[in-house]
Amino acid sequence: MLTEEEKKEVEEELRKNERKKAAAVEALKVVQRHRGWVSQDDIDELSEALDMTPDELDAVATFYSLIFRKPVGRHVILICDSVSCWIMEYERMLQHLTSRLGIRPGETTSDGRFTLLPVACLGACDRAPAMMVGETLYTDLAPEKIDEILDKYK
Amino acid sequence: MPTIYIDNKPYEVKDGQNLLHACLSLGFDIPYFCWHPAMNSVGACRQCAVKQFRDEKDTKGKIVMSCMTPAADGTRISIDDPEVKEFRACVIEWLMLNHPHDCPVCDEGGECHLQDMTVMTGHDYRRTRFRKRTHRNQDLGPFVNHEMNRCIQCYRCVRFYRDHAGGRDFDVFASHHHVYFGRQKDGTLENEFSGNLVEICPTGVFTDKSLKRHYTRKWDLQTAPSVCMHCGLGCNTIPGERYGTLRRILNRFNGEVNGYFLCDRGRYGYEFVNSSRRTRQPFIRNKESGKLVPASREESLEYLSSVLYFGAKVIGIGSPRASIEANFALRTLVGPERFFSFGERNLKMISSIIDALKNGPARSPSLREIADSDAVFVLGEDVTNTAPLLALALRQSVRQRPMERVEKFGIPLWNDSAVREGIQDEKGPLFIAGTHATKLDELATETYHGAPDDLARLGFAVAHELDPEAPAVTNPGEDVSSLARRIANALRNSRRPVVISGMSSGSEELVHAAANAAWALCRTGKDAGLCFIQNECNALGLGLMGGRSLDEAFSLMEKGETDTAIVLENDLYGNSESFLVDKFLDKCRHVIVIDHLPSKTTEKAGLILPACTFAESNGVFVNNEGRAQRFFRVFVPSDEIQDSWRWLGDAMKVSRHPVSWETDDDIIASVSREVPILNLKDVSPPAAFRVAGQKIPRQPHRYSGRTAMHADISVHEPKPPEDPDSALSFSMEGYEGMPPSPLLTRFWSPGWNSVQSVNKFQSEVGGPLRGGDPGKRLIEPAKGGAVSYFQGVPASFEPGSERLFIVPLYHIFGSDELSLLSPGIAERTPAPYIALSRKDADSLGIAGESGAEVAASGQSCRLPVKVDDSLPHGVVGLFAGSSPLRGIALPLWGRVRKTE
Amino acid sequence: MDKPLTGAMRSDGQALSLKEYEDAGGYSALRKALKGMTPHEVLEEVKKSNLRGRGGAGFPTGLKWSFMPMGADVARPKYLVCNADEMEPGTFKDRLLLEGNPHLLLEGMVLSGFALDADIAYIFLRWEYRVAAERLERAIEEAYQSNYLGKNILGSGYSLDMRLHVSAGRYICGEETALLNALEGKRAVPRSKPPHPQVSGLWGKPTVVNNAETYCNVPHIIGNGADWYKGLSRTDEGGTKLYGVSGRVKRPGAWELPMGTTMRELLEEHGGGMRDGYKFRGALPGGASTDFILEEHLDVRMDFESMQKTGSRMGTGTMIVLDDKTCPVGMVLNLQTFFARESCGWCTPCREGLPWIVKMLDAIERGEGGMEDLEILQQQTRLLGPGNTFCALAPGAMEPLQSALKYFKADFEKHIRERRCPYKGGV
Ligand SMILES: Cc1cc2nc3c(=O)[nH]c(=O)nc-3n(C[C@H](O)[C@H](O)[C@H](O)COP(=O)(O)O)c2cc1C
Ligand code: SF4
Ligand code: FES
Predict the structure, then answer these.
(1) Which CATH number does the domain housing residue A53 bear?
(2) ipTM score of the complex?
(3) Does the pTM exceed 0.90?
């Protein structure tokens, strides 16, 4: 069940868009902002609000890479795996992250703290390698810097 | 006509086509996947590539997708250019990278478009050594099997299911090479046209689940042209048989009728033919025990001769689901005066329909014409449930008006995705007036719900609005008259308007109102269509043959003017109230029933004669358009089963009747002579027809195991059965070319093993079959002359103070009893119920989904209640299908009470 | 040197406030146009400026606009869309503008909307640009408050509504027709062209899509005139360009420079040259979907026309440098992995071909490739070329691959012969 707050935000998105269906991605993001991911129940409930069938909404939801249809940790690490970062030792950063967190890309730490997802170019190529934790961008990464950053997230 | 150059040779092509369409019509083999003649181009698969050159001097050219390129005058292309051939072969290579190569165990094998296209492009050597991606399959319910690993992502399934058929519980998920076609969760596909996925899918992702249970390869199926008998539209089908079992139904293209598609009732309803309950030999009631016991043919003939003596008081009851031949044989045996057809109300309606179509100026349109119409008014029919494929046609008709707008932007209509993006949610005028909300309402410009009389009043009001000479409606009320004005305006402003009504509301006035509306349009100079739905496959044929009402038969019996009844392919309990039938049959000294399955009526018979189903006999049905269509025996029935008309012919012989027939052609000649409107002579070529001295084989050239398939019975290969009734043979030998369209036993062409081979049988791809689409229109509108409008506008409906008005609620799965013997259809059939508006439910004190007692016409039963707020106050809906109240002629007044 | 796009930006990385922007002359071009110009004159001025689209393909903006149906009886609403999806690997120029001077984009869009008589404008922004989202949101609000947006803008009778749409990932959303589907809340699959969006775009209505940087040029063209604007450039193509460099250079970054600055200047003067210990081997001059260029091409001027001489393209003008210690096979593998993952899945060559290419490259990189793989790869670069696929994603992906196979063939062969990546271990 969506909370009152979520419902209000979804309503707001519906109001802002010319057609209900156009608010699909925004509505999915509302839920994701509050819950980290979008569950089957959320799809069912949202699709009703959007005048869509669950099939239609999920066809959209599963297309976009930043809509998560599986549970994620409290903090999602989006590490850029595209070319400039790759040149600037993305692989070493990834290795550092995986060994520090004990998970592979796509997985969530057992304490539910972090989910690690490689993503496409973050548009920070001049300060590569880069990653985002939650909504914050971190650039010019190095293993020590990564440690410091991760320590900030509980 | 534009001229295009293909590999330097000029060809004339039709205006406004894309290159793929034009080249296929010219007979060139260009491989394709995502394109489909009924769904046009989207350019996804990239298989149909050709080389295009700027002009004569351009030797380099560039690769284009033929389906996305206009066949404009002067276009120069090459199909054979080595570069483009390499590209096309590589498209197959790409598609096969992850394909499981499981053809030997795939149900599509041997009739697979992917196999055909693979061979066509010449790709044969696999250059990849990597692991394949795999998918999980889903349970999609009883009709369609899912095997996603075979998918080549042509997007046809979603395009058909969603865009064409309006289904919303199926889609494409994920992206890049993970795209997945299916449902969000496992579960039954809800759309009524889901079975078409089986034919739309060019490979083995979606296959026929009913076929799977008794699987046979295409090349081992014996097939013949047939006509669906599960509603009145008469869709053309190709049933396939092996070892005496019907294995599946495929679409048989008929450009005027069903085009490329069938509904799920038509595709999956066939299994009653294989039912273990089939009556396979005669039964005679034993005098001592009173029980029905198996009898021989001779005993049955003896029985017949003993009761059908000269001067016996015999009547015949015909059947709207039996062929013209069977009905005519019965009529001939008993005499036209003693031949009975419909219940009184239905007889009146069918007579009005025939009267309207024959004597009025409006023409009955074909399904294709309806799909092309640009404004539609539906009056009192839930077409999704009473004439499913008409719903599919209407889904296309609402696109016509917006398509005209989009075309003005210079978007060619074959560019399907561009057209849809241009149209968005816009829909052309469609007005639906019915007793309750229907599935098609979602497409409607406006809907109106009312009791049948109120619906008729709306129809009359529309007619009057269009032509003041049409009878006016007194005190229509502002709502109705303004709605009528809007409907009239929309129809008036269209180019090809159609008015649709039918028999399922049980209201003759509705038929009149619809006719008036269409006629009024004609009077304004429009070429308006007038379409009437009947629920049974040969209702119009039976109507044209004539016959008196069942009620009269009952009263003859009552009066003792008859004592023997022959009932043809009909369960009287399904058409009339059971106490009436009981009274009638109990009074009858001899009840002879000819049918293929036991029923409540056969339980009362003195003699049961086992009849052929549609699959085992030849015959003619007349569909709702008035199109006579011939179906052919797919296989020879075993045991004592024979055509109903042959049993009747036998009866005529033993009773020394002067008329006799040997073949189907004889009886057709006879009916054409006796009933002029039923001139069926050139519906299909006669039995004597030969091509190059040969018959047309029902078995394909690759039919296997012929010498061995009966080896457990006899090591000698039996002689194939003769077929005196048609130009088709029960063997592989015969004419392998292209027979006349009514005799097409299958679609199969060199290099084209799949259903797509129909391309090769059309005069232009997507157009009519060569030599014209099968069937013969029997009724054309009266030319010129004055229009004499139907009078008798009913008074508006007044809810009863104690009684409620019961109307029927039809279900595609459930309202047709024969199809219920297919397990898949049975699974989809709802339990009987009644539906009430919230207001009526409340005033009866019925809470939520509880039960109620329904009483009407002296019968009563308890049924669960559904609340349906679209029902007008004072009107209840009763599930039209097998329930304890089956047989009651609806609508009628009854009572509903809360149960304790 | 004039830097109309970035000159006024703050050095602390904060966005210019509305006030700061106005003080620097912001919105004066809009006032000028609304007071004294007809939409047609605005369009003519843009045409004259030789402004070419900054989204990568360099299509002349004025020409694109001239296909927009005008007049009272055309379908409404008409739409103006800003493509701020910027997901092309190696590209980070729009972000600079969006974060540093959101009002410039807004003014450019209102001017463009005025020229095209658009009713509703959308900014399509990728989700990861969180800072830009916040600043744009605020700027839009401020612009409404100051009547630079909304009804009857500055009393001119022209009205424009603007909305920010924040996307949810997927590179293909940047393709302009896929973007329209994304805005409609659908799967972001490209649409067929023709019809062009100007004819049937968002919700089937006339629509113009331009890149964010493109719009940012418009206020200066209108404010200072097309001649002035052309004068900024060193070549025929008007104005300045945001160029960038990433990879192992001393000072990676992005700068606004005259159109037609050479690659060498960019790399050496602005990027500070290669980092110590690294040599230049080649570069993708304008994002991931451009062909490699080599040392010998560095003196070519970077504009859409001139860059064709190199066999590559200007693209987004943001260069990714390949150094001598980085494996070109690995780099191409990385690029193809990106493209394969970002394919929308609509057309066969892209959906199926790219993953196959990735598998072959991966095998080569791991030392498991064969010479026949090179032949297949070579063939694939041809078969996934322009026209063969539904949109430009896959042909774009083929550009770095085909040039790598040409320029770095020895590297590929060495991988295969030695059955290992020569850049890994041992080095
Ligand atoms: C796969 C693909 C991705 C694209 N991504 C972007 C993008 O992120 N930003 C952009 O402005 N243009 C992008 N484009 C180009 C757009 O389709 C379009 O040409 C551009 O937005 C037009 O703007 P312009 O005329 O101002 O250059 C992309 C094109 C393709 C084929
Ligand atoms: S090339 Fe084809 S599959 Fe790839 S992104 Fe474009 S349309 Fe989608
Ligand atoms: S048939 Fe032309 S691209 Fe699929």
Answers:
(1) 1.10.10
(2) 0.97
(3) yes
